[in-house]
Write a structure and sequence with these properties.
8 helices; transferase activity; about 20% strand; globular; transferase; single chain; Aminoglycoside 3'-phosphotransferase, Chain: A, domain 2; about 250 residues; three-stranded antiparallel beta sheet; Aminoglycoside phosphotransferase
Amino acid sequence: MNAVGDEVEVVVAHQERATVRIGDVFLKIDADQGRTDVEVEAMAIAPIPTPQVLWRKPPVLALAALPGVALGRLGQASSASPAAWSAAGAAARELHDAPLPPWTSTSLAERASRPDAQCAWLLANDVLPADLVRRNRQLAERALRPSKPVFMHGDLQVCHIFVDGDEVTGVLDWSEAGRGDAMFDLAILTLGHREHLDDVVVGYGADDVDVDVIRAHWSLRCLTAVRWLVEHGFDPTSPGCEVDVLKAQM
């Protein structure tokens, strides 16, 4: 890494962790070394491209930057081609077809316990209209059905997938990886970008996609994320972000 003349770009920063970029190196700072352990192991066994680990000195993990650009950003229109979105779907499929990782992840019972408490907070604090919360809570129920576990990325946001033209060059941020629901990954990938859902399904394989469950995960994700975002200094009401997704579900 050549630090001379390189600017420090803050990629994300909040009370739990931060990621900065200096030149061609990402520095991830996380006090929870359990998350970093998961990230390093997941990248080592994932069958799709991941960043090269340059070094690790807790609480810092240094990763080489991926070539290309992010597939998109939540709240912004994606400039990536339909073929690039299909390639992202194909990468997700390759991951889901891989052997399960040796560690467990959040159980269905734990996930099922979250939305009611989060919805109660949203209503008690007048954060969102009651009809919006209740309707999306109804839609979210379908996402809580039992599913066959797969090797799940766990946070497959569009900004974590890098593409060069129509090819995926790598996937970032594996700290939430584990055994989980394949439709959850596809939902996070298409959150706020429903216009590209068909492209992702083409790449993934339509026969193994339940679009209704993906849409249910959109509601579940947004309902359970709004409080965290507010409390950590982010704005879920920004155009195209979580609150707009909830409204579109109506």
